[in-house]
């Protein structure tokens, strides 16, 4: 717990060491993410997360996540967690086609799928 003036209050006597370590990690993480925010969406037990600038548009990245999941669903024919685990290199290829330097590069699902099929034919 932080007191006025930036000093740390001592941990209460009833608090375990694990809880104080967890609080310290959360406090440090808040410092790391001061200029960023996490945007996530859940699909059937899978969480898709993106870390973006504070000033970026939330809705644009929620739509980008939805678009990404639809491309994965089409590419893997009803994607599941095992597809993502065992074909992670294909997932990275999809990410590379849709995002460039952390920004949305391509929004057309047909163009992305066409490019992925072309790359798959080269293998």
What does this structure look like?
This protein has 123 residues and is α+β, with helices and mostly antiparallel strands. The protein has a domain at 57-122: 2-Layer Sandwich (Beta-Lactamase). Helix content is 54%, strand content 16%. It contains five helices and four strands, in the order H-E-E-H-H-H-E-E-H. The chain has helices spanning 17-32, 58-76, 81-86, 88-98, 109-122; strands spanning 36-43, 46-53, 99-100, 103-104. The chain has a two-stranded antiparallel ribbon. Strands 3-4 form a two-stranded antiparallel sheet. Helix 2 (58-76) packs across helix 5. It is elongated, with a radius of gyration of 20 Å. It starts with 16 loop residues before the first helix and ends with a helix. The model has no long low-confidence stretch (mean pLDDT 83).
CATH topology of the domain at 57-122: Beta-Lactamase
Q: In one word, what is the shape?
A: elongated
Q: Biggest sheet: strands side by side, in what order?
A: 1-2
- Estimated share of beta-strand residues: 15-25%
Q: Which radius of gyration do the C-alpha atoms yield?
A: 20 Å
> Which structural class do you get from the secondary structure elements?
alpha+beta
Number of helices: 5
Separation, N- and C-terminal Cα atoms: 55 Å
Low-confidence stretches: none
CATH uppermost class of the domain at 57-122: Alpha Beta
Q: How many strands in all?
A: 4
The whole-number mean of residue pLDDT values reads 83
Instruction: Spell the H/E element sequence.
Output: HEEHHHEEH
Summarize the amount of helix as a percent range.
Answer: 40-55%
Main beta-sheet annotation: 2 strands, antiparallel
Label the CATH architecture of the domain at 57-122.
Answer: 2-Layer Sandwich
Keywords: Membrane, Protein transport, Transport
Main location: membrane
Membrane topology: Peripheral membrane protein
Organism: Equus asinus asinus
